[in-house]
Design a protein that fits this description.
Structural class: alpha/beta
Strand order of the largest sheet: 13-12-11-14-15-16
Strand content: 5-15%
Number of strands: 16
Length: 511
């Protein structure tokens, strides 16, 4: 005790001595010097506080909200790609693809026949049966007549994606009011097969039938964005729309698609740099709505317009005159920004040959393992996103084991299902994905190859995250999603609309 008291007394004595020395030295200083010293001390104290705040905040929130990334984007050169500042990290998450959806047809969910679907401009019939036999689907109150179409060649004989018709997927799959529980008719990459398979009507439990019917008949929110189709002949414009690329592949795809859709709605061109990561992965090409620029100097004087919600539709983003160049951002994660030009976007988002070839080889390897062909199986991609989202303080909720069990059970009613799992948590996936059927796990690929694998599947079970969202959209088949990706009351939850339907397509199946 005496030693501790002595040490305390010594410390107090040292403080008193230091204060006296400081007082004596400052008394000799002129007033202006004292003022300058205070300013300098305050400046360094502020800088130290800012660096402390940055270091603390770097460990909080999602990667794309971290201050260093945001500052990099703000300070970047207008002529440079933001990918130079924000390198893409390795991240497994498949790209979702959904059929083109129009609100006016979704509002009439009664019966759907071959004749009615042919009268709808964006709806196309799906091949399901071998003998032109009519089969009931979904429920007795919602029927559809479908005819068989020619089957596609095996994966190994497919041409590379560069020669594919960009609209082939959209026309071969369910259209605007297509039932979400689709039969086994899709194509690998550019031409998925249209083969025979039984429908799910009689096999599905009543609870699944009910949820499927609800998914079909849901009418999109009233804030649906209507983008007028731009004329094919347009006069040169001095104004453009430019992207704000931040985050990784899933984020970049939303930023590309939404920027493209906004540019089309204003009848101006969207500018992408040749060095942008999105252009390195997909074979983008200049068209009526897009410029692939070497320098992106068109964006040198761009003004910024940001959204109110990262994962919700904000109509205020579109309230500007097309006489000024704008850089739009930051995340624009809503299908409402681009769904009216989705066929054009599908034409742009064709994987580069080396990526698609690796994806085809991956699926072909699984087919060879089971001594089968693409015509004889239904390939269902499963995306499992966990990683840094598990127990994250910002509000992420990863898809549960029960969700995957329900989704797998749903697709077990398809003909000869083959499940292909892409994940960033291989151990958890192997322990929790149901193995009653053929299940294969993809490993060792780059994020873009995994996305191409998922996009080449007939249907996709997504989990959470924008990467998985785009896996479903690009596959253009039946898509399921986890309905609670954000914890209530969290910062992430505020990024979505009240019902999440600005983010998820109304015809996708929430489980």
């Amino acid at each position: 005790m005496n030693l501790r008291k002595n040490r305390v007394n010594e410390q107090k004595t040292m403080l008193v001595v230091c204060e006296e020395l400081f007082d004596r030295s400052t008394k000799k200083m002129p007033t202006n010097v004292k003022y300058f010293a205070c300013v300098v001390a305050s400046f360094f104290a502020t800088v130290a506080a800012l660096f402390t705040l940055l270091s603390v905040s770097q460990g909080m929130g999602p990667n794309h909200f971290k201050p260093i990334r945001i500052i990099n984007v703000i300070l970047q050169s207008n002529q440079a790609s933001s990918d130079e500042y924000l390198p893409v990290n390795s991240f497994r998450d498949p790209p979702p693809v959904s059929p083109d959806f129009t609100a006016k047809n979704a509002s009439s969910p009664t019966s759907l026949s071959a004749s009615s679907s042919s009268s709808s401009s964006s709806s196309s019939s799906k091949a399901v049966s071998t003998s032109s036999k009519k089969e009931s689907t979904i429920s007795s109150s919602s029927t559809r007549t479908t005819t068989s179409s020619s089957s596609r060649p095996p994966v190994s004989s497919l041409p590379k994606s560069s020669s594919a018709n960009p609209n082939q997927k959209s026309s071969s799959k369910a259209g605007t009011t297509a039932a979400p529980l689709k039969s086994t008719t899709t194509s690998l990459s550019t031409s998925k097969r249209a083969s025979t398979s039984p429908t799910l009507a009689s096999k599905l439990p009543s609870t699944i039938k009910k949820s499927a019917t609800t998914a079909v008949t849901t009418t999109p929110p009233s804030t649906h964005l209507s983008i007028a189709s731009p004329s094919t002949t347009r006069s040169p414009s001095a104004s453009y729309i430019c992207p704000t690329f931040t985050g990784r592949l899933g984020n970049n795809l939303f930023q590309f698609a939404s920027g493209y859709g906004i540019a089309a709605s204003k009848n101006v061109k969207f500018v992408i740099g040749e060095g942008d990561n999105i252009n390195k992965i997909f074979k983008l090409k200049t068209d009526n709505h897009l410029i692939v620029s070497k320098t992106r100097r068109e964006c040198a004087a761009a003004k910024f317009r940001g959204e109110g919600r990262a994962s919700g539709f904000d109509p205020n983003v579109l309230k500007f005159k097309a006489d000024t160049t704008y850089r739009v951002g930051n995340f624009l994660q809503s299908w409402k920004y681009f769904h009216d030009v989705s066929s054009d976007i599908r034409g742009q988002l064709k994987f580069r040959d080396h990526i698609q070839t690796k994806a085809d080889s991956t699926i072909n390897g699984f087919l060879k393992k089971y001594n089968t062909t693409r015509e004889n199986v239904t390939v269902i991609g499963i995306h499992v996103r966990r990683g840094d989202m598990v127990n994250h303080g910002f509000g992420y909720q990863v898809a549960t084991k029960e969700y995957f069990e329900k989704a797998v059970a749903l697709f077990n009613n398809y003909s000869s299902p083959l499940f292909v799992v892409c994940t960033n948590d291989l151990a958890w996936s192997k322990a929790n994905i149901p193995k009653s059927n053929k299940v294969e796990f993809v490993s060792g690929n780059s994020p873009e190859v995994d996305m191409a694998v998922m996009a080449s599947c007939d249907h996709v079970i997504t989990s959470v995250g924008s990467y998985g969202w785009w896996a479903g959209w690009l596959s253009n088949g039946t898509v399921t999603y986890y309905k609670w990706p954000a914890r209530e009351g969290s910062g992430l939850r505020s990024a979505y609309s009240a019902d999440y339907m600005d983010y998820f397509y109304p015809h996708w199946i929430g489980l």
